[in-house]
Amino acid sequence: MEKTTGLKRSVGVTSGISLVVGTVIGSGIFFKQAQVIATAGGSTPALLAWIFGGLITLAAGLTISEIGARIPLTGGLYIYMEKIYGKVWGFLTGWAQTVLYAPAIVASLSAYFAILFNNFFGLSQQWQLLVAILTILFITGINLLDNRVPAAFAVITTSIKLLPIIAVIAYGLFFGKVDALNQSVATVTATPSGGFGMAVLATLFAYDGWATLTNMGGELKNPQKNLPRAIVIGILIVVVAYAGISYGMMRAMPANEIVRLGDNATFGVVTQAFGKLGGRLLTIIILISILGTINGKLMALPRMTFAMAEDGVLPKWLAKVNRFNEPIGSILFLTVTASLLQFTASADWLSNIAVFIIWIFYTATFVGLFILRHRDKQAAQVAEPLQELESIFSVPGYPWVPLIAILGALFVLISTLINDFGSSIIAIGLVFIGLPVYWYYSRKKGEAYD
């Protein structure tokens, strides 16, 4: 039986695609080019790393799309994990995103925005904290209005952020004089993190955010069709954009020069193509791009917290909606926690921990598709069927596509554990701190633990 909420089904497929693209494409594509080339050891393996990372992400998106079509409810991974593995694991999924992933990712994005904003306007570092918090408050204000407003903001910012990507691709294709393929670099990353595999890992971090839309399953129009469409089309656009800008940059500038310029490589290509004014315009567009990404997070992630509060496993005030039927309690909770995190760890540490945690639950959810299909085979009828078989999206290439998603997820987790074991264990510990909270609310509701 589908849960009823105070949220409206008013988000269409175009807004859904914009949310996927806008949430994924932030600043990473503009700053990761040199890292991927240096880690991979040359231009051809770097380009392949972006493509491989995109294929893994597409496999993940297809897998989640079928699960989301079967369970078209507000709450995303929280609802999926609860339906597949039971209430304890559903709660821990939601808890991890509410208290760790969502605040950490919003805090890190706003910190990156503040750094770039201050550099552009020549402000001293002491303004960084204030700018970051004001950025969060600005996007919060947009998301407290009718959800058509942040949805429109997502469409606008996504359209704007694609402009420099298209420009770099076009410049590289039509005016670039460098052979983009078969270039080697003089200084390959000489650390345990070097190699093609770690280059793919770097791209997977840049692709993160594609599953954010699943949190809004209860607000999408016709979610059984539009959720898979939005996720798959959105990921395909991102893959083309990422591989395209990588190829375009390597056509415009030698790989060694890109590695030498590091984070400034994209600015170097744009300045080469369009002059100093072009470089400054790129900075403005990247700032808009990051705002769009923060908007996507603040638009979708509070829906999961809202769903948990509606279920009675978090304080009821988190399920409060305003006159626009927006989950004001959950949105403001994310606003406050993300703002407080500005006073703690660095943006890089926060973003790395956030991505590691979310991939733990991605992995379990991918495996869950096999469980759901097995249940369908075991019984023609169940007490509360998730969705009629003939009306749902099915993953093409099953079981190989979900297996690719699972292997990619395991690669992310194992690589992160090897490279940052201490932080990974801290993050896992913070997840399991949620168990006493779950026991408290289960006892309060008079339910048995499961």
Automatic annotation (TrEMBL):
<feature type="transmembrane region" description="Helical">
    <location>
        <begin position="127"/>
        <end position="145"/>
    </location>
</feature>
<feature type="transmembrane region" description="Helical">
    <location>
        <begin position="277"/>
        <end position="294"/>
    </location>
</feature>
<feature type="transmembrane region" description="Helical">
    <location>
        <begin position="421"/>
        <end position="441"/>
    </location>
</feature>
<feature type="transmembrane region" description="Helical">
    <location>
        <begin position="349"/>
        <end position="372"/>
    </location>
</feature>
<keyword id="KW-1133">Transmembrane helix</keyword>
<feature type="transmembrane region" description="Helical">
    <location>
        <begin position="47"/>
        <end position="67"/>
    </location>
</feature>
<feature type="transmembrane region" description="Helical">
    <location>
        <begin position="152"/>
        <end position="174"/>
    </location>
</feature>
<keyword id="KW-0812">Transmembrane</keyword>
<feature type="transmembrane region" description="Helical">
    <location>
        <begin position="88"/>
        <end position="115"/>
    </location>
</feature>
<feature type="transmembrane region" description="Helical">
    <location>
        <begin position="12"/>
        <end position="31"/>
    </location>
</feature>
<keyword id="KW-0472">Membrane</keyword>
<feature type="transmembrane region" description="Helical">
    <location>
        <begin position="186"/>
        <end position="207"/>
    </location>
</feature>
<feature type="transmembrane region" description="Helical">
    <location>
        <begin position="324"/>
        <end position="343"/>
    </location>
</feature>
<dbReference type="GO" id="GO:0015179">
    <property type="term" value="F:L-amino acid transmembrane transporter activity"/>
</dbReference>
<feature type="transmembrane region" description="Helical">
    <location>
        <begin position="393"/>
        <end position="415"/>
    </location>
</feature>
<feature type="transmembrane region" description="Helical">
    <location>
        <begin position="227"/>
        <end position="245"/>
    </location>
</feature>
<dbReference type="InterPro" id="IPR050598">
    <property type="entry name" value="AminoAcid_Transporter"/>
</dbReference>
<dbReference type="InterPro" id="IPR002293">
    <property type="entry name" value="AA/rel_permease1"/>
</dbReference>
<protein>
    <submittedName>
        <fullName>Amino acid transporter</fullName>
    </submittedName>
</protein>
<dbReference type="Pfam" id="PF13520">
    <property type="entry name" value="AA_permease_2"/>
</dbReference>
<dbReference type="GO" id="GO:0016020">
    <property type="term" value="C:membrane"/>
</dbReference>
